[in-house]
């Protein structure tokens, strides 16, 4: 069963991971070797967790890359399902 309005994975990083590590956002961005501005956009839900960032998080010991990508996928799918979409007719049944 899909989660109701799953959080953006950046929110998990911002609210749970970074405080648990006791480091600043700038220090974490530096450690992961990504620009602080890009990292800030991810943390605030304005950019996705990419496969590259997921791998970097795993290499830094922050869970598994697959978990970060699964969270991003769940978030993206929920957002898409709740946006207005065009009417699409089903294909004819293929036997």
Automatic annotation (TrEMBL):
Keywords: DNA-binding. Transmembrane segments: none annotated. GO terms for molecular function: DNA binding. NCBIfam families: antidote_HigA. This is HigA family addiction module antidote protein.
């Amino acid at each position: 069963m899909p989660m109701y309005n799953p959080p953006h994975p950046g929110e998990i990083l911002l609210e749970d991971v970074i405080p648990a590590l006791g480091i600043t956002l700038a220090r974490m961005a530096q450690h992961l070797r990504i620009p602080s501005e890009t990292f800030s956009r991810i943390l605030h839900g304005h950019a996705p967790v990419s496969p590259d960032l997921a791998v970097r998080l795993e290499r830094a010991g922050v869970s598994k890359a697959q978990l970060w990508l699964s969270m991003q996928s769940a978030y993206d799918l929920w957002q898409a399902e709740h946006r207005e979409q065009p009417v699409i007719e089903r294909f004819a049944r293929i036997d």
